[in-house]
Amino acid sequence: xxxxxxxxxxxxxxxxLGRMMALEAPRLSLRCKVLDxxxxxxxxxxxxxEGYVEGGLKDSEKLKELxxxxxxxxxxIEHISVPALEELxxxxxxxxxxxxxxxxxxxxxxxxDHFAKAGVALPRYMDTPNVEAVKRAAEEFGLPLMLKxxxxxxxxxxNCVLKSIEDAQKAFDTVNNPGGVYxxxxxxxxxxxxxxxxxxxxxxxxxxxTVSAIQRDSVCRIVVAPARAPxxxxxxxxxxxxxxxxxxxxxxxxxxxxxxICRDGSVLLNEVAPRxxxxxxxxxxxxxxxxxxxxxxxxxxxxxxxxxxxxxxxGMVNVLGTGDMEGTTAALKLAxxxxxxxxxxxxxxxxxxxxxxxxxxxxxxxxxxxEKDLKALMDAVGLTMEGEGKGGDVFPPPPLVGVIMGSDxxxxxxxxxxxILKEFGVHFEVDIVSAHRTPVKMTEYxxxxxxxxxxxxxxxxxxxxxxxxxxxxMTPLPVVGVPIKTSTLSGVDSLHSIVQMPRGIPVATVAxxxxxxxxxxxxxxxxxxxxxxxxxxxxYQRGMKEVVEGKSERLKDIGYEKYVEGMGNKGGTVNV
Amino acid sequence: xxxxxxxxxxxxxxxxLGRMMALEAPRLSLRCKVLDxxxxxxxxxxxxxEGYVEGGLKDSEKLKELxxxxxxxxxxIEHISVPALEELxxxxxxxxxxxxxxxxxxxxxxxxDHFAKAGVALPRYMDTPNVEAVKRAAEEFGLPLMLKxxxxxxxxxxNCVLKSIEDAQKAFDTVNNPGGVYxxxxxxxxxxxxxxxxxxxxxxxxxxxTVSAIQRDSVCRIVVAPARAPxxxxxxxxxxxxxxxxxxxxxxxxxxxxxxICRDGSVLLNEVAPRxxxxxxxxxxxxxxxxxxxxxxxxxxxxxxxxxxxxxxxGMVNVLGTGDMEGTTAALKLAxxxxxxxxxxxxxxxxxxxxxxxxxxxxxxxxxxxEKDLKALMDAVGLTMEGEGKGGDVFPPPPLVGVIMGSDxxxxxxxxxxxILKEFGVHFEVDIVSAHRTPVKMTEYxxxxxxxxxxxxxxxxxxxxxxxxxxxxMTPLPVVGVPIKTSTLSGVDSLHSIVQMPRGIPVATVAxxxxxxxxxxxxxxxxxxxxxxxxxxxxYQRGMKEVVEGKSERLKDIGYEKYVEGMGNKGGTVNV
Lengths: 576, 576
Prior knowledge:
Two copies of one chain form a homodimer. By secondary structure, the first copy, chain A, is of the alpha/beta class. The longest helix of chain A is centred in the last third of the chain and has 36 residues, at 531-566. Mean pLDDT of chain A is 92; it is low at 387-394. Chains A, B: This is phosphoribosylaminoimidazole carboxylase. Chains A, B: GO terms for molecular function: ATP binding; metal ion binding; phosphoribosylaminoimidazole carboxylase activity.
């Protein structure tokens, strides 16, 4: 950083993205100057330290006025004039990312051709300059067919789904603009993912985590990090995104990369935006360095900041205009009462229907712990999971604990672990996984559990009880083993099978048949970094003390003879 | 929040604290207006959306100019004119906190009297209007004696330590100003703590975590959160701070409360500042709602945001001027290359010696994991722990794992757990704690471990091996039990003693004598929420696979007969 002579960053566009960049700049010793046509109403007006140029984003003269005194010029939007940028560059202005990147990206057909050539996995696509070409595309790719404007599209604008060939002309006319039209084969994706990539002037690039981007009417409404997708797909999405950005010579700054995840877990690149992106807003409150800071760092030639999550989970809820301020700000007011929500208002007015007015970021120690706040906020912005055909819970958070057992005959015993987890409000899953009868399923379970977000596995088995140890050998997670009591050796066989693991692979073994303790141990493990859960465990321990004190009191009250009578012949404990 | 008509906050003082408030305001739909004498050089200039009034902070007319159009007026500094504030209030201006709070706080003797009356624990103090009174104070409190200006002191300015009674006049003259002088009895504190308290207009108050504030020459240099102090003292500090703030009628906004922790763990209030404070800067990157946001929320009548840490540990390093920009920004440049550091530059120039120019916040999953970055940054700002008399490591981070055993004869076995923790870079402690020979020590250890920051306990014991279970019954932490092999029953006695715990109190038991697995289990537990450690565990597991593959290769190479020969008579494994 240069504190003696703070670099000046010119930003083309003074909307919410420019505003959020400008708010991060001062503490990095950077000064922002902004070009926007919105005048005093632009979200950036009054925010950028180095001033504000009022004018159109494609106006060559205004761009020169912006560039004056700037060390670098960047943009918060891709719909800008490439020739005007080229002119700036020819005058010696440092434009980051360079005009060539905007040229590749802003025409979606050129973008597709570029990425196809670079070997990036894409949906099938075809140039459709006229209705005849649309019909050929429908023949080749089948219906429905996605028609898109090559230029100027965003948030679903410029897209049209062709369902019947009779509507070809109408659909073509809907999306046709001077930029032209192209067609994409229908992708039967299960979810939309996104990855923010940041690339420095030295060519170093880093990925933020893969997130799930939940859209309604083609507008991003909710983002969940990490994505609710298999770990392998999340990784594949990052690799795809990184290779796409690295394929563009001289690409700098932050890029929003949208992807589809298909039923088989494969990933296809959808679109790239050369700027901070709605799917990266969560980074403001969930990563060491936000997408806005990293964009500023990258375009001004600084080192890149950390892109990992510093919390267990994060979510972002877009606040769209409802037509009036009262309705629009309802979710924001709710967020102000939440312990781990951050409100980001864009300073826009009026609150026109569907206009992006602000967003709310929430964080938690794990996806499961974020669920309550996320659902409440979704409710407040009028989002339900209806119409998704999955009973109102399309994006279930991953379980924190996996409870597995070798046989359903172990369930009566193992259910005690589940009851404890339920009592402590820990999200868990239960399954039957047999080491000897379903070895392949066991291997898959063990290998995938950590990637799915599971943090502890409880495994119960009896006799030659191999399940806990075998699972432990294929996961880095702590595995709690429950030796099931057997009729032949009273469970001593199970105990020795589970506890006597070789050096290198530990199993946390509890007493024979004591699945309750396995549940409690899992809670203690989760609680070691979770304050709320720790407090619940302490309360549970105080509760046990009080039960014994109650019994002691009763023993004093009624005497040992009556007490023992009340216990019957079982020699068990008596409820007081 | 009010988005239709964003409230305007007037801030008296446009230094770094005002600047950091102003940077948080836009996203909350608040607009800041600032009064400062610094002109274009003030850190707030160009940052506050609603404009800037140039003028002295005590200038009644300028204050009125500031208040014009403001919904509320607050301050970033306590050295302001109470009569001028009272005049504003009489004109109907909403001043938060009210002038009465500044009146109580800005004269430190009045502050002491107020808190003493409210029953807050304080060092002994006495009014010393003249040298005779100073001598009486020295007689009563002993030497050294702390003399302080009643008004206008900060960062040690206005303080003087009287070591010899002959210097009484000189010391008195040093700190005497129109506000007068008072004396404080010497406090032999072991550490300085601080707690930020925020209080709403409805009287709700919340504490941020207790932090350690490390000073040099009476200037705060480093803050570590949570404080490196016993949990009971941390809690006591929060209670003391909260009761102090709640004792001031109508107190609103954020308060910095500085405290001493004494050798016996008791806590004394030192001073209170009615504003965001240097010891609360870490909240920007480590809490859901920073001290600056919470101050804005509180004074403008909004609900309070979350004050808990959302990360495992945080640190703050002040960047003081070194006389030139190059030297001053060295630590900032280092911070830019760290994954989890955030740079906060105040936009000041020149970098005068000792001037507060900026700060760096760092975060980590645990105090131990923060140590490396913290030490590197301390080094970069020229801070060593020398002169503290504790061998350069005064503030050791708490261990993540406690390894305990019933007897030193268990150490050869238990050291295998330590070796694993060392290999994985996990900070741990080792001690001998016997259930039967040191039951009181065991109780203390078990009860205090969680509060000290320990996340997992490994306990080894042999025979009637009570240690793991007894410890588990007195801590909410996961306890890993290692059954030590015995000569009489080969450790089966130890195993059954450790594993067969009653319902309610689990011990994660590993194989007889297998302390290595206990270490690995502790790592797996810690790794469940730590990405870096998880990756190390996966690498370790791959390593084990490779060792076996190597052996398999060699077996194929040399044949089983030669292989078995090479193993000698022990039947053990052979190194390849």
